[in-house]
Amino acid sequence: MTGSTGTAVLDRNGLDALVKELTAQGRMVVGPTVRDGAVVLSELATADQLPFGWGTEVEAGRYRLVPRADGAAFAHTTGPQSWKSFLHPQREKLWSADRASDGRLGVTPEHHEQPSYAFLGVRPCDLRAIAVQDRVLAGGHYEDTGYAERRRGAFLVAAECTEPGATCFCVSMGGGPAADAGFDLALTEVVDDAGHRFLVRVGSDAGADVLARLPRRAADAATRTTAREAVDAARDRMGRAMPPVDLRALMGASAEAQRWDDVAERCLTCGNCTMVCPTCFCTTMEEVTDLTGDHAERWQRWDSCFDLDFSLLHGGPVRATPRSRYRQWLTHKLSTWYDQFDSSGCVGCGRCVTWCPVGIDITEEAAALHDELAERLRRQERESGARRDGTETER
Q: Are 255 and 220 members of one domain?
């Protein structure tokens, strides 16, 4: 390959060749496509199934597809799904048990050959989310073997962001619209007078091998410059931002904040935010039997800390109120996640804001908690000063 080391340019035919090459390697190619009024993740047979010419308008509690005149494929924000749906599926069978005619029980672990995935169009926020789930589900003492197997075989093609949405806030969470790690190939889409093309960067040996098999041309200086400028401009156009404070300390100091009552009056405890979140990982186990009682199965499925039974003990649920459940979710996401996994549990993708049916905004809640804490500290300082003044006057 000529040109800068590890970079090249693909046109639309080259993008389709990428899908065909990954398919030929025996991979299931998954990427964004338009279905049911949204950009969703689905298996792709060709690059033509990508959402060319579609963008999105998002706000708190609002999501709309909108047509684009430029025919871009990756000019949309994140949809209701994340790659978690494939690496950490919503429901997974773990084992089955059968009673034989002599009364003996036999347990059969469930193990299917996992698909070899190729994810096309992974946003940088989702790259960070996958890295978070890697630490949670495959990086500790108790590995989720299904997740680890699916993850080891996954080929990641990132799509850098040039059109952030109104609910995006990845920059304020330490990320950004640029893909900096965790990918095999990274695409930056460029549509201008020179045509529709994709700057490709290599992130791994596997990525270099795939790129070498594709029709491509050398990455010219103009395309590299235009691509970088588009990504840099996106960094300055985030729709939202977390308050620039130590969120971990803020949550720890806000356990008794009055703001929790305010959000509890609005929260439906539906769990939408945890379902669309690319890092939420909680599961529960359920056993099902047939009518004879001779066959049983254990399934693992997603659970949510907004579920009343999530914290159920013998005396009832530990977190019985919407206030306590929302506080648990937000405090864990932004603070105590560090204690467990040495990072935040939020990557700033904005899905929880977009897909909340009542439009609760995690950045707004964090800012309100910060304002309340700051006011409480100012009031305490005033009261302390008044006490000191009174003491000095008495003396």
A: no
